[in-house]
Amino acid sequence: MNFLKFLFSPRRRNFLPILAIAAVLARVNFCEAQVDIRRDATVEAVRVVMPAVVNIRTESLVQSRDPFEDFFREYFDPFHRQQRPNTEFSLGSGVIIDEDGYILTNLHVVQRARRIAIKLSEEAGGGEYDVEPIIGTPRTDVALLKIIPKKPGEKFKAVKFAKDDDLLLGETVIALGNPFGLGGSVSRGILSAKRRAVPKENEPLDMPNWLQTDAAINPGNSGGPLVNLRGELIGLNVAILAQAQGIGFAIPVKQVGEALTEIFRPETGLSSTWLGARFSLGVSPLSITSIKPGSPAETGGLRVGDQIVQVNGKTPRSFIELNQWLRDKTQRDFKFDVQRQNRRQIFAVRLVPVEQLLRQKLGLDVQEIHEDIAANFGLRPLAGLLVAGVEKGSPAELSRLEPGFVITQINAQPVPDFLNASARLENLKKGELAVLNLLVPQRRGNLLLGYKAITVSLKTR
């Protein structure tokens, strides 16, 4: 009765704020009770990334001789059939980086493979697909693959890239993979070191900045992603130190990005055209990160730092999509709508064949040595580039190069095709030396006796 009198008395107004606060606190406590405390940042990061993780299965024929073959044939025929060549399966992991199905993995996982197939994680449906290799970089042990879709317009879950060097020593990191096709594998640890040089068979590795982590990198996890608690790719799992426990390594996303911009560019497409510009990774807006001297990009007016708004009237949604447009073999002319500081400008750029780079820099017309040419000149296929013409007054003529010479190396790197030759030359500025290893034909009349190896240094123009 006293409580009822209190509720209807003027004094109750003094207690209303207290009652309201108590009600809010009760509601908060009730909500907290409903939250699953197991769903921490690690669980959320794994939930976001795992659909982009794939298992990689490769096949390569290995001819071998079973020492028990004769024994089984003698005692168990006709039940024993002749052994077929072994099929070797190399099981690793990879991570999807674009919704069109582009996958990053380690080159050592897929090299020398006769056939490559992938299996999606259970979180992504577990489907199996064939893939086609794009290209790889032995120096960085990074390879790019492309899923062959089963239906037009099929899309895949892709991982997000972390910013270059956005690393905190001691931060929690997660190593993911899909080893042996059994499903997802997850291990957690910390970032133990940002820079580690790991020897490879008693030789220094040409990539001194691997990440070190104590997150277990299990067998089959090579090529899988190393991510932070935001679910962003910070590295590509690559190796463990067999003599120790808790020491694993990953290729940092910065080096992965640099490798990717070398792997996937107009020069490596079917059209093999030269642009001479590199773009930032990730999604729009993309920016230009480098311009090669004397390239179509430079002569067309593009500059480092330009943000790409549109190309031929379309906005590229990602690094991959932009390069797909530029690799289109049916098109050479592009209009780049860019944001430069506070102004929007449009530049017309015409891509040129990569072989024109040799003509521009050295004054040479060359041919790739395919089987028919190789047979006529007593060479093996892809032995180098055959000099077909020399421009008058060019660095090549001044160095007395002649048609019939074969360029085998430029600056100590093999050049079996136009693509490799352009990669050796496009960074050279005017006046810098290009050192050519050449095979010079030795003839007696019309009879080809052989080739003599020489080295010539040319100043590029």
The number of E-state strands comes to 26
What is the strand arrangement across the widest sheet?
Answer: 1-2-3-6-5-4
Structural class: alpha+beta
Mean pLDDT: 82
Discrete helix count: 12
Low-confidence spans: 74-83, 199-207
- The level of helicity is 10-25%
Task: Please tell me about this protein's structure.
This protein has 461 residues and is an alpha+beta fold. It is 21% helix and 36% strand. It contains twelve helices and 26 strands. The protein has helices at residues 2-7, 16-34, 41-49, 69-76, 107-110, 253-263, 296-299, 319-326, 355-362, 371-377, 395-398, 418-425; strands at 53-62, 86-98, 102-106, 115-120, 128-137, 142-147, 160-161, 172-177, 185-196, 210-213, 225-227, 232-240, 248-252, 273-274, 277-279, 286-291, 307-311, 333-340, 343-350, 352-353, 364-368, 385-390, 406-410, 413-414, 433-444, 447-459. The strands form five sheets. The protein has a six-stranded antiparallel barrel with strand order 1-2-3-6-5-4. α9 (355-362) packs across α12 (418-425). The relative contact order is 0.08. Residues 74-83 and 199-207 have low confidence and may be disordered.
